[in-house]
Amino acid sequence: MKKIGFLSFGHWTPSPASQARSAADVLQQSIELAVAAEELGADGAYFRVHHFARQLASPFPLLAAVGARTSRIEIGTGVIDMRYENPLYMAEDAGAADLISGGRLQLGISRGSPEQVVDGWRYFGFAPGEGETEADMARRHTDVLLEVLKGEGFAEPSPRPMFANPPGLLRIEPHSEGLRDRIWWGAASDATARWAGEKGMHLMSSTLKADESGEPFHVQQRKQIEAFREAWAAAGHDRAPRVSVSRSIFALTNDLDHAYFGAEGRSADQVGQIDDMRAIFGRSYAAEPDVLVEQLKDDEAIQAADTLLLTVPNQLGVDYNAHVLESILTHVAPELGWR
Fold first, then answer.
1. What is 123-148 written as a DSSP string?
2. Which of 187, 239, 252, 271 could be 257's S-S partner, Cβ–Cβ 3.0 to 4.6 Å?
3. Where is the Luciferase-like domain (predicted)?
4. The domain containing residue 61 runs over which residues?
C-alpha cells in the first residue's frame, strides 16, 4: 500500500491559455482540487511555497481553508523555505491550521531553492549570523521550530498579565499535540537526508537531487532514502519514519492526455547546475496505463517510498487535474499494489 497525493506549485499566469490567471484563481482552485482529490480517494493535498513569484506563497491560510473543507486527506507543504520564516510565528500559524484540520497537517520544510530575487529573505528581516551561511540560518530556524512545537513552556509570564495565566512558563499557543511528529525535511543530498533522520523529521525527496554518484536519478534517490532510514534508526526515534517522493506521471487515456503530455513519454534524466550544486533531474512519465505500470515498477525510489506526490499542471484547471489523479488511482495504482 502507498499513500498517493498531489503536489501543486500553484502557478498563475494572466494569459488566455491558463485557467489560473490570478492569485485568487489559484487559491480557490487549490481548495477545489483538494476537495476533489479527497472525493476520488487520494490521500494528500500538498502545496509548494515560493516567494516573490506568481505562485503560492503564504501557505497557512490555504492549509486552514483546505482543512475546513475536507475531512480525511493529509494536507501539507512541499516545501516551506525556512530562510524566510519566523519560527515562533510559524508555530502559531501551523498550530491553528492543524487544529482546524483535526491534526492532518504534514509540513514539509527545507533550506529552500533558488530564488526569484537576490537574498529575498533579507526583505523579510532575516540575515545569517556571524560565520553562518544562509543554509545554517535555515537550520537554526528549523531547530527553534522543532523545539517550540514540543509544547513546553519557555517564556516568563508577566507579573501583571491582561488575562490569568496557567502556572509556570508559557508556551506558544495554540499548541497542536502531535504536530512536531509530522514535520518533513526536503533533502537535496544524502547528507541532509541523514540530518533529517537524526532530527526525527520525515523525508521529502523531490524530482531533483545532488548528483553524487553519476547513477540514474531513481537509483541515487533510493540510496538517499536508505541513508535517511539508517540515520533514523541509529538515532533511536520511537516512531516509524516516512518518505515521500514526487514525480510527474501522466496516464494517457484520451486524446487530450496525448495532446498535452504525449511527448513526455520520451523524457529522460537530465543533469544541470542549481546554484553551486551539480544536480540531477528525474524524468517524467507519460504512457498508456499498461506501459506506465511496467515503467514504474523499475523506479527504485518510488518502490522504496511510502508516499508518492504527483506534481500536477495546475494551470490546466481543476477538472483536468482531477482527471489526472483519477487516472493514476484507477488504472495504475491497483496494478502496482498501491491500492
1. GGT----TT--HHHHHHHHHHHHHHH
2. 252
3. 9-250
4. 3-336
